[in-house]
């Protein structure tokens, strides 16, 4: 192992936290290694803190990163000797992945352990025991196929994730090919990293493939990876999306880049229940119910066809009812697509157990360096609360404090000045509060798009923005996810959702699609200085700092003086 040296940027601590010196010449190299097996905890200016967890190691193992590569990275970048017990723990976490295996046994399943002691230990665990049937040997238990998902959840929670090798139903056949020339007449082929991601998911059709999550930045073509996986599986597919706009974009991509015809693609929504070989539905329709205690009326869609593949777009947003039904769908191939595995509800372990482990994760800065996504500068602009709002802010409760700070009227002048700095660049103004979005849009004379905007009007505004006829568009949270606005080059965030890291990533992602010329994007976030909004802004930036982005801090006077 390389000897520690004071020039290295990494300090490995005994509590499994990793301290990284940002100023080190080796910082970027280390950051790209850490993203594969550690989680970023906090990222102030000079020292970033990561943490090694069982789930971060298991995801690394599932992505093909051996434990020894992780240990080598710790030693290679360490400033001081790496605590031996940390090395031991990394190897222990890694060794637990795959010591239990789910295997097919006729019409049923077996849970097989690597040794009798582990089998005995697992069988005595209260979360696991209800899902184990007859013990048919020292090493194996019979398992009902209906309990496949719930058993995997229970095993993750006791620290022994099962490698699922029980295979999948083939589903109804759906021959399709990817075009070499799109219907729009442009040449088309999967980029190398998209090919690798689809290949890692499918694994040649073996039992080791067929379930997992692909993590790619917004603008890097996660939908195209989905098309690649569909081409590999060649089976009837259910695609779940975040909303009607995203559903239409999936439909457009399928028709433009595959051999599928319109009559092979169905929409399952509030206005249509058209189930076809490829059916696109939204999470909202699946989780709709007429009353709070009523049954979810549309979850039966999962059984309406013999699906060979289910695609969960923006899997980090998967709602609890869809988790529940997914636990019973473990015989179907399942693909999750996301820009970040961060879930604000902390259910990353359920994504791991029920959708599958991370199969591919390409660092954002790597794709930026290769020109596949735009370079981005991130700027936080801090401005004071007006005197008239300081007392209302002081006497408000925590939630109202955040709203008062977020809706700071002084932000409008800053937005105007930023627009003047980027006069010829398509710009999105993004906010959390509808009233704020509409008011700024009215003041600036630009169109606004919110949750109350009719779908036909949304489609029109998005189309005109993409065509360049609308240079500036003010949008609420409805534009956070799965909206294809390839020419957007500037985003001005006037308010965010508390400390949501996933939202920050998605909003930056709106402007990362590659651009002609300098391939440069600008992301501004406006916050009220010395308020809870400033504190939440630091939390929101955490994931993007892990990806290598840094925020320049500017005073609002630079934009209004």
Quick description:
This protein is of the alpha/beta class and 561 residues long. It has 4 domains: 10-96, no CATH class; 100-165, no CATH class; 192-362, Rossmann fold (3-Layer(aba) Sandwich), CATH 3.40.50; 368-560, P-loop containing nucleotide triphosphate hydrolases (Rossmann fold, 3-Layer(aba) Sandwich), CATH 3.40.50.300.
Give your account of this protein's structure.
The chain has 561 residues and is an alpha/beta fold. It folds into four domains: 10-96, no CATH class; 100-165, no CATH class; 192-362, Rossmann fold (3-Layer(aba) Sandwich), CATH 3.40.50.300; 368-560, Rossmann fold. The chain has a seven-stranded parallel sheet, sandwiched between helices. Strands 18-19-17-20-21-16-22 form a seven-stranded parallel sheet, sandwiched between helices. Strand 5 (100-105) and strand 6 form a beta hairpin. The termini are far apart. The model has no long low-confidence stretch (mean pLDDT 88).
Compute the separation of the termini in Å: 56 Å
The gross shape turns out to be: globular
- The pLDDT mean sits at 88
Enumerate the strands of the largest sheet in spatial order, edge to edge or round the barrel: 11-12-10-13-14-9-15
- Highest-level CATH class of the largest domain: Alpha Beta
